[in-house]
Structures are given as structure tokens and as C-alpha cells.
């Protein structure tokens, strides 16, 4: 079954309060899907999502500038139709996959996830999307593949921040294959039941909720299956501050600030710092991926 988003939903259509509340409670449980079987406790948890305004007006998307309001101000210049994603490397069916053709095959669901930036702020975001594993399945992952490398669009005519050369564009990210195939890892195409806004990474972006936000690469045009660990943009830029794994860990401070707590975006007067959770609260689901690894070294 495939479900396709359209641009015709308004926020009011998408979130009748009572309906949304019910759905939210359902999805809080469904969010972790298979991985949650038998771990009832977290499934009961209900996360209060941030507002549409918080989520779409306070962003990091350096292709449009380094200020938090730059993406909301300038990302409307980005053309997202037509869009295609090249999937290549160690796959059975390499090629340029049209966004529409991908969506026709995928089942879109809502996932309400904590989102924790390495800069120590956080939100809760109701994404719409599908599991990355399903998309990789479309291309057929070969046995020798060990990592997945992602690339954002490079189009300086529309992405004004790309005229600044402090980043070696395009923005690149990577995951180990087992991280990429984990049921919590999704490709997001919507927020609050609406098409994902350009500033949040339209038309398709990665969301890996147990890792720092910079891993969740936006506006993806290329996915490569490889047997070599990719060098992600932030690691290339500042390897002593940002690593490949980038798992949220309150016990390992950033060289320039503590990661023990985080500032909740929104809430006005009630805005506060809360303790940061190991693996951003998804420890039960993902800790086994890192058994035997020294998480203070592999950051
Ligand atoms: N292509 C690209 N992807 C990106 C970034 C970026 O600058 N460029 N910023 C990252 C960072 S640091 C964060 S915190 C999240 C922010 O996502 P949001 O604006 O949807 O909250 O996007 C990540 N993905
Ligand atoms: Mo971030």
C-alpha cells in the first residue's frame, strides 16, 4: 500500500486536535516498530511535538546560510520538482530513481521522534516518511556493502549558502549498513501530515533519531552503497569535534561545550534545559548495534 502526500492539506486539516492526540499516542508506540517488541515501557511514552513554527523557522541548513532563520528565509528558491535520487555502488539495480516512482512504492507513516542537535538544542518532530530499509530494498543491497553514503543537492544558483566555500559541497553523510537498515531510520517526506518544507530538507531527507542532528542529511540526491566508511562533511571539517558515529551521548562532551543537557526549543517562558538521554532516548532499541565499541573513542 502506498500513500502519497499532496500539497492540498492545510495545517487545520492535518491536525484536528483530538484526532491528532489519538494518532500521536498510537504512533508513539508504533514509532519504534519491530525493534520495540517486548520492550513495552518506552512504547507507552507520549512525546509532545513542537509547533509547526518551531520546526520550520529554526533550522540548520547551511546551503542557505548559517543563521537559524536563513533556511526559512531563503530555501523557497529551491526547485524540488522534478527530483530524483541516484542509488549506486554495491546494489543490484543502480540507477536514477524518480521521486514520484519512489513514493509510489513506499508506505508513508508518522514517526514522532526526539531531535537533538550537536549544538545542545532539541525539538520533538512528527515526521512523515518511510523506512530507509525499504528504499534500499528497491535497489537491492549487495553482500559486500558495509556503509551507506548520502549526498545533498549541489545547486548554487538556488542554494545561496553554497557560494560560501567553508564547506566542501555537496554536504555528505554516512551510516554503517546496520544503522541504515534499523527500523528507526527513516527518510522523511513530510511533517505534521504536510509536504516537508524546503527548509527542512525537501523533498526527501534522512532522519536518524539516536544521532546528533547533523547526521540527518537534507535534500538527498545520491545514495551510494560502499565497503568503505564515508567521510562525512562535519568530520572532514573538524575531525576533533565531529565524528562519523555521532551517537547522542550525555557522557561525552563536545570539546567546546557540555552535552549533558539540552535546551528545548519553543515553550517561550517555559523554555528549559532538560537532561540529554543516552542515544537520545533510543538506547533500548539501538545500544546493541554498538556492543563492544568504546563509545568515548568512536564518537
Ligand atoms: N544538507 C544539509 N543537511 C543538514 C544540515 C545542513 O546544513 N545541510 N544541517 C544538519 C543539522 S546540524 C541539523 S541540526 C539538522 C536540522 O534539521 P531541521 O532544520 O529540520 O531541524 O539538519 C542536518 N542536515
Ligand atoms: Mo545540528
UniProtKB/TrEMBL annotation:
<dbReference type="InterPro" id="IPR022867">
    <property type="entry name" value="MsrP"/>
</dbReference>
<dbReference type="Pfam" id="PF00174">
    <property type="entry name" value="Oxidored_molyb"/>
</dbReference>
<comment type="function">
    <text>Part of the MsrPQ system that repairs oxidized periplasmic proteins containing methionine sulfoxide residues (Met-O), using respiratory chain electrons. Thus protects these proteins from oxidative-stress damage caused by reactive species of oxygen and chlorine generated by the host defense mechanisms. MsrPQ is essential for the maintenance of envelope integrity under bleach stress, rescuing a wide series of structurally unrelated periplasmic proteins from methionine oxidation.</text>
</comment>
<dbReference type="GO" id="GO:0030091">
    <property type="term" value="P:protein repair"/>
</dbReference>
<keyword id="KW-0732">Signal</keyword>
<feature type="binding site">
    <location>
        <position position="117"/>
    </location>
    <ligand>
        <name>Mo-molybdopterin</name>
    </ligand>
</feature>
<comment type="similarity">
    <text>Belongs to the MsrP family.</text>
</comment>
<feature type="binding site">
    <location>
        <position position="59"/>
    </location>
    <ligand>
        <name>Mo-molybdopterin</name>
    </ligand>
</feature>
<dbReference type="GO" id="GO:0046872">
    <property type="term" value="F:metal ion binding"/>
</dbReference>
<feature type="binding site">
    <location>
        <position position="200"/>
    </location>
    <ligand>
        <name>Mo-molybdopterin</name>
    </ligand>
</feature>
<keyword id="KW-0500">Molybdenum</keyword>
<dbReference type="InterPro" id="IPR019546">
    <property type="entry name" value="TAT_signal_bac_arc"/>
</dbReference>
<keyword id="KW-0479">Metal-binding</keyword>
<comment type="subunit">
    <text>Heterodimer of a catalytic subunit (MsrP) and a heme-binding subunit (MsrQ).</text>
</comment>
<dbReference type="GO" id="GO:0016672">
    <property type="term" value="F:oxidoreductase activity, acting on a sulfur group of donors, quinone or similar compound as acceptor"/>
</dbReference>
<dbReference type="InterPro" id="IPR000572">
    <property type="entry name" value="OxRdtase_Mopterin-bd_dom"/>
</dbReference>
<dbReference type="InterPro" id="IPR006311">
    <property type="entry name" value="TAT_signal"/>
</dbReference>
<protein>
    <recommendedName>
        <fullName>Protein-methionine-sulfoxide reductase catalytic subunit MsrP</fullName>
        <ecNumber>1.8.5.-</ecNumber>
    </recommendedName>
</protein>
<feature type="binding site">
    <location>
        <position position="152"/>
    </location>
    <ligand>
        <name>Mo-molybdopterin</name>
    </ligand>
</feature>
<dbReference type="InterPro" id="IPR036374">
    <property type="entry name" value="OxRdtase_Mopterin-bd_sf"/>
</dbReference>
<feature type="binding site">
    <location>
        <begin position="62"/>
        <end position="63"/>
    </location>
    <ligand>
        <name>Mo-molybdopterin</name>
    </ligand>
</feature>
<keyword id="KW-0560">Oxidoreductase</keyword>
<dbReference type="GO" id="GO:0043546">
    <property type="term" value="F:molybdopterin cofactor binding"/>
</dbReference>
<feature type="binding site">
    <location>
        <position position="205"/>
    </location>
    <ligand>
        <name>Mo-molybdopterin</name>
    </ligand>
</feature>
<feature type="binding site">
    <location>
        <begin position="216"/>
        <end position="218"/>
    </location>
    <ligand>
        <name>Mo-molybdopterin</name>
    </ligand>
</feature>
<feature type="domain" description="Oxidoreductase molybdopterin-binding">
    <location>
        <begin position="79"/>
        <end position="234"/>
    </location>
</feature>
Amino acid at each position: 500500500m502506498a500513500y502519497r502526500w499532496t500539497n492540498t492539506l492545510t495545517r487545520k486539516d492535518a491536525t484536528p486536535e483530538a484526532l491528532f492526540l489519538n494518532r500521536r499516542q498510537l504512533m508513539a508506540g508504533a514509532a519504534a516498530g519491530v525493534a520495540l517488541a517486548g520492550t513495552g515501557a518506552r512504547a507507552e511514552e507520549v512525546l509532545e511535538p513542537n509547533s509547526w513554527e518551531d520546526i520550520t523557522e529554526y533550522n540548520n541548513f547551511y546551503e542557505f546560510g548559517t543563521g537559524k532563520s536563513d533556511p526559512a528565509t531563503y530555501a523557497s528558491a529551491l526547485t524540488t520538482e522534478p527530483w530524483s535520487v541516484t542509488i549506486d555502488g554495491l546494489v543490484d539495480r543502480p540507477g536514477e530513481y524518480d521521486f514520484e516512482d519512489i513514493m509510489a512504492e513506499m508506505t508513508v507513516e508518522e514517526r514522532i521522534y526526539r531531535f537533538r542537535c550537536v549544538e545542545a538544542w532539541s525539538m520533538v518532530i512528527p515526521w512523515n516518511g518511510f523506512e530507509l530499509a525499504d528504499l534500499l530494498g528497491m535497489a537491492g543491497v549487495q553482500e559486500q556493502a558495509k556503509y551507506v553514503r548520502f549526498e545533498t543537492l549541489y545547486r548554487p544558483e538556488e542554494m545561496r549558502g553554497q557560494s560560501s566555500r567553508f564547506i566542501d559541497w555537496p554536504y555528505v553523510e554516512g551510516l554503517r549498513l546496520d544503522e541504515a537498515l534499523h527500523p528507526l531510520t527513516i527518510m522523511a517526506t513530510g511533517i505534521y501530515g504536510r509536504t516537508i518544507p524546503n527548509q527542512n530538507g525537501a523533498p526527501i531527507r534522512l532522519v536518524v533519531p539516536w544521532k546528533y542532528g547533523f547526521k540527518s542529511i537534507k535534500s538527498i540526491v545520491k545514495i551510494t552503497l560502499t565497503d568503505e566508511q564515508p567521510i562525512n562533511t562535519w568530520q572532514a571539517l573538524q575531525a576533533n569535534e565531529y565524528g562519523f558515529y555521532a551517537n547522542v551521548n550525555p557522557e561525552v562532551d563536545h570539546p567546546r561545550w557540555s552535552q549533558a543537557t539540552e535546551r528545548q526549543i519553543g515553550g517561550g517562558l517555559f523554555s528549559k534545559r532538560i537532561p540529554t538521554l543516552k542515544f537520545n532516548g533510543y538506547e533500548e532499541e539501538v545500544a546493541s548495534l554498538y556492543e563492544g565499541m568504546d563509545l568515548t573513542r568512536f564518537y
